[in-house]
């Protein structure tokens, strides 16, 4: 075994030096020894203004949103409490008073 660190991408132990970089022969990832390893693989969710969102936050809708399959609309300024973030196309799972359970995109809300 080598004294080189494992690959941060695929965790392979077969890494080697190539000039000033470390290289993983299994996935092809190249990195510098001085480069900090990132262990946080969790996606980051941001609202329309770029503020980070977390589970349990309260957000406000910034655009009228038509509800698919219904004639109802989620109006601008509707407050949504206690959101839950999910890794999907619509990344906010919530309940809206008067409408019910629904999924929203983070680009159409702002953090309160």
From TrEMBL:
Belongs to the YjdM family. It holds the Pfam family Zn_Ribbon_YjdM. Residues 4-32 form the Protein YjdM N-terminal domain. The gene is phnA. This is Uncharacterized Zn-ribbon-containing protein involved in phosphonate metabolism. Residues 46-112 form the Protein YjdM C-terminal domain. Transmembrane segments: none annotated.
């Amino acid at each position: 075994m080598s004294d080189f660190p494992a690959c941060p991408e695929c965790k392979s132990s077969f890494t080697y030096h190539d000039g000033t970089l470390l290289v993983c022969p299994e996935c092809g990832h190249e990195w510098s020894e001085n480069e900090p390893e990132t262990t946080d693989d969790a996606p980051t969710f941001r609202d329309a203004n770029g503020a980070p969102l977390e589970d349990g936050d309260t957000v406000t809708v910034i655009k009228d949103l038509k509800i698919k399959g219904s004639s109802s609309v989620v109006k601008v300024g509707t407050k949504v409490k206690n959101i839950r973030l999910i890794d999907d196309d619509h990344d906010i799972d919530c309940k809206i008073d008067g409408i019910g359970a629904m999924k929203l995109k983070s680009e159409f809300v702002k953090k309160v």
